[in-house]
Write a structure and sequence with these properties.
Structural class: alpha/beta
Distance between the termini: 40 Å
CATH architecture of the largest domain: 3-Layer(aba) Sandwich
Bound molecules: S-adenosylmethionine
CATH topology of the largest domain: Rossmann fold
Strand order of the largest sheet: 11-4-5-3-2-12-13-1-14
Radius of gyration: 26 Å
Helix content: 25-40%
Number of domains: 3
Number of helices: 14
Length: about 450
């Protein structure tokens, strides 16, 4: 079993290839059955690729989508292994029933309430929703699971009431029997409500909307695995699980369908531990880039050029992003056919309206007409540069590029993460669905 690997795939495709009973711990934080906008990361649509399958048919479709994945997860777990499924209130009742079906109700171990603080406004008719649920299931019998019970410090108030013997050990005396009871010096056993908040301004935050706190993953990994064990996160997002597992000397495997997620995780692992993951199936050829969904493609190109995304959601007169330093506009075209004169004309109009004198069009290839049109536009004072995807890909090979291969950087410097997009800049649901169908860009 290869570990230290990030797979850029639909996890089902990968899971079916993993050997049975090979993994010690699985933590999964799947896309919630909720407002799909929430899932859009850096404007990358990969998170919602299966939108139509999962959402259009309602919650049963969502569960139908999850079920074969979780069944595979159970198969790959060792008999001593544990699965933690993280979910919000939208579908947790359905997910619990699904887990009972797959694991058997007897394998249910805990319903953990992860309670956090938020700074959002007060809802009018409901209580403030400040928790998620994490279901914990065992592959085998509860007595066989790998487990180190999490503990927390004894409360000061309680400690004060208790006494110490000559060796400094703390005890209390039972009211009825008068017997001494020594307390565990490692702390009090934790219950199933965990209070952990990832502060809005925490340094840990990478900008991933669904990012989970490292302290949460640390508790799970500490409780349900030992050093050297294999930890799998099949929906690993910006890589909280793999980053914590790496620090805690576990072997790990991450899967995420989004190329942006893989880039972020590679960088996170490098910045944190100088760890260079093996990356599998991230698009790294022209043909793979041609297969990307339009928004993913656009995202890839703008990131590769170290650019910033257009603050307008889409259709900003053909301007998709801006050159990082000069703020010159960039248009990205994924079209299979060479880009022709009309695209250059339209882009010139957009530049005129936006009062830009320099701009870039990125495409796989350009017609001779397009090149001639660029020469003509130059006469009118518009400097349009035609960039081939091949050239962009060369950029990504340069150290320091946001999409450069992970690994030793000059002087071991900290590498930048792709720029984050604000909610207002993200594509709308309709645009994503159109993009899913290949109708955009
Ligand atoms: C809720 S986020 C996970 C966040 C993660 N726990 C963290 O701390 O960053 C869900 C992730 O699942 C990924 N995803 C969605 N569908 C997927 C699939 N079929 N296979 C693998 N990953 C998928 C998305 O790209 C997204 O990054």
């Amino acid at each position: 079993m290869d570990t230290g690997v990030l797979y850029c795939n639909d996890n089902l495709e990968r899971l079916v290839e993993f050997p049975s009973e090979s993994v010690d711990l699985i933590y999964l934080d799947p896309p919630f059955f909720t407002n799909r906008h929430y899932e859009v990361i850096w404007g990358d649509e990969a998170e919602v690729r299966s939108f139509e399958d999962r959402w259009e048919g309602g919650v049963q479709h969502y569960i139908g989508w999850m079920k074969p994945r979780v069944a595979e997860m159970r198969r790959v777990l060792k008999p001593t292994g544990t699965l933690y499924l993280h979910c919000d209130p939208h579908a947790n009742h359905h997910l619990r029933v699904m887990l009972d079906d797959i694991f058997g109700p007897k394998r249910f171990l805990n319903e953990i309430v992860w309670h956090y603080q938020t700074s959002g406004g007060a809802p009018k008719k409901t209580l403030i929703r400040n928790h998620d649920t994490i279901f914990r299931y065992a592959k085998g019998k509860a007595r066989d699971v790998t487990w180190t019970a999490p503990r927390e410090p004894w409360p000061e108030k309680t400690l004060k009431k208790w006494q110490r013997d000559e060796e400094g050990r703390i005890y209390h005396i039972h009211n009825d029997t008068g017997k001494r009871y020594y307390i565990n010096p490692d702390g009090k056993l934790m219950d199933d409500v965990w209070d952990i908040t990832l502060a809005a301004r925490s340094k840990e935050r990478l900008g991933w909307p669904t990012q989970k706190p490292e302290a949460l993953l640390q508790r799970i990994i500490e409780a349900s695995s030992n050093e050297g064990d294999i930890v799998l996160d099949p929906f690993c997002g910006c890589g909280t699980t793999v980053a914590v597992a790496e620090r805690m000397k576990r072997r790990w495997i991450g899967i995420d369908i989004s190329p942006t997620a893989i880039t972020v995780m590679g960088r996170r692992l490098w910045n944190q531990s100088r760890c260079v993951p093996t990356v599998v199936d991230v698009p790294d050829s022209e043909s793979a880039l041609r297969r990307l969904k339009p928004f993913e493609f656009q995202n890839y190109i703008i990131n590769a050029l170290n650019g910033t995304h257009s603050p307008k959601k889409s259709g900003d007169m053909g301007i998709d992003g801006f050159w990082f330093f000069t703020k010159d506009p960039i248009q990205v075209k994924q079209s299979e056919h060479p880009v022709g004169r009309n695209v250059v004309d339209n882009f010139e109009t957009a530049m005129r309206r936006g009062k830009y004198d320099t701009g870039y069009i990125v495409a796989f290839s350009f017609t001779k007409d397009a090149v001639e049109e660029v020469a003509r536009a130059k006469g009118d004072g518009f400097h349009i540069k035609l960039i081939r995807v091949k050239e962009v890909m060369l950029q990504t090979k340069r150290p320091g590029n946001p999409l450069a291969k992970f690994g030793p950087q000059p002087e071991g410097e900290v590498v930048p993460l792709p720029p984050m997009r604000k909610t207002t800049e993200m594509p709308s649901a309709m645009e994503l669905i159109e993009s899913d169908r290949g109708e955009t860009a």
